[in-house]
Amino acid sequence: MKFEEMNIDENIVDILEKENIVEPTEIQKLAIPLIKEGRDIMGQSETGSGKTLAFAIPMVERVERGKGIQALILTPTRELANQIEEEVRKIAVYKGLKIVNIHGGVPIMPQIKNLKTADMVVGTPGRILDHIRRGTVNFSRVEYMVIDEADRMLDMGFIDDVGRIIRNTPRERQTMLFSATLPPEVKRLSARYMKRPETLLTNRMVDPRLLNQFYLESEGREKIEMLAKLIEKEKPEKCLIFTNTRVEADRVSKKLRLMGFSANVLHGGLNQARRDKIMANFRNGRIRILVATDVASRGLDVKEITHIFNYDVPGRAEDYIHRIGRTARAGKDGKAVTLLSRRDHAPFRRILNKFKLPIKRMNRQNI
To answer: Among 90-99, 159-168, 232-241, 274-283, which is the least confidently predicted range?
Structure first.
């Protein structure tokens, strides 16, 4: 199936073709027809599955210029808000729609001005609630609402804020919820605020034929040395190194730089301008090695990541899946290596038990 066979506005099809996007992904095939029918949907789909276009295409077709805020997209992080804004803006250009991005870390006054003439809003819960309290945003005309990365909203403590925001929109609206996992709290949110949603399930796991997964026993001080040896041996075109904390991310990136690697760091402690610059440079290839906390594992669509290195094993088994999902995409091979110390054994066993993954032991002598 191609986009022109899905009864999509030919202007959008032309824009997609110029972006070399011709065939819809699985979530797009499932979601777009239902959204066009006016159905509420709850989509379980992994990061990078193309879900932004799945909800953006039908909304852009229907939103009209100059009739107030008709579409609201909630997302957990600033980076994801920026990414969604960019994708929506590309396909909305033919209608001249005004898309306003609302998140923290930047001055609020320009947002207040832009909201007065907005047609679509994408933003994070905290800053949107701030505008609601100030009375600087009007959601009374919202017809389409998207809750993206709902399980991440839950992890970050935003789920109650999401409910408060929803209560400031009309009851008669179309609601779309997307989540990599569907924990009970997310299901309760959908039951409370959605009308008989259609649940869409797509493959959440990376294709094991494309992703080679390994673990490497490594203790204490030698851990950073083993990581450096891995980078030298693998020569990744682009790699993400995951740590569990900001402090560790800073420490690992600093040590790699001292060892002669051009490594950068990304976590929530950096100001927004710095984070935006780092992500732009990582996407365009100016940065090859990025040390990050899990803020980078969800919702960020970065192409051509060849390697994932887990310097720390995540506490939640699902976060391992989100991390390795950054590579082996679009039919390309990828490699994930987890550095395993004694303290990592328990969370690593939880990952193995829950997902039955083919993770092989890497021979230290081969590094």
So the answer is: 274-283
How much helix, strand and coil, in percent to the nearest 5, is found in the chain? Answer: 45, 15, 40
What is the separation of C-alpha 287 from the centre of its chain, rounded to a whole number of angstroms?
19
Is the CA virtual torsion 279, 285, 286, 291 positive or negative?
A: positive
Cβ proximity of 72 and 121 under 8 Å: yes
What pTM did the predictor assign? Answer: 0.72
CA distance 203 to 184: 20
Q: Are 24 and 6 in contact (CB under 8 A)?
A: yes
What pLDDT is recorded for position 203? Answer: 59
The residues near 307 (Cβ < 8 Å, ≥ 6 apart) are 234, 236, 238, 239, 240, 327, 334, 335, 336, 337
Contact 54, 28 (CB under 8 A): yes
Q: Note whether 177 and 190 are within 8 A (CB).
A: yes
To the nearest 10°, report the CA torsion of 267, 270, 274, 280.
Answer: 10
Phi and psi dihedrals of 193, rounded to 5?
Answer: -115, 0
Distance CA 270, CA 291 (A): 13
Percent of the chain past pLDDT 90, that is, above it, reads 68
According to the model, what pLDDT value does residue 206 have?
62
Q: What are the DSSP calls for 198-232, one per residue?
A: EEEE---S--TTTEEEEEEE--TTHHHHHHHHHHH
Q: Give which of 158, 160, 147, 152 is closest to 181, Cα–Cα.
A: 152
pLDDT in tens, 71-119: 999 999 988 999 999 999 999 999 999 999 999 989 999 999 999 999 9
- pLDDT over threshold 60, residue 299: no
Gap between the Cα atoms of 338 and 352, Å rounded: 12
Phi-psi sector, 50: left (phi>0), alpha (psi -120 to 50), beta: left
Ordered structural domains, the chain, with CATH? 3-201 (3.40.50.300), 211-366 (3.40.50.300)
Give the pLDDT mean for 165-190: 92
- The answer to whether the beta carbons of residues 46 and 27 sit under 8 Å apart is no
Cβ count near 365 (within 10 Å):
5
Indicate left, alpha or beta for 136 from its phi (over 0: left) and psi (-120 to 50: alpha): alpha
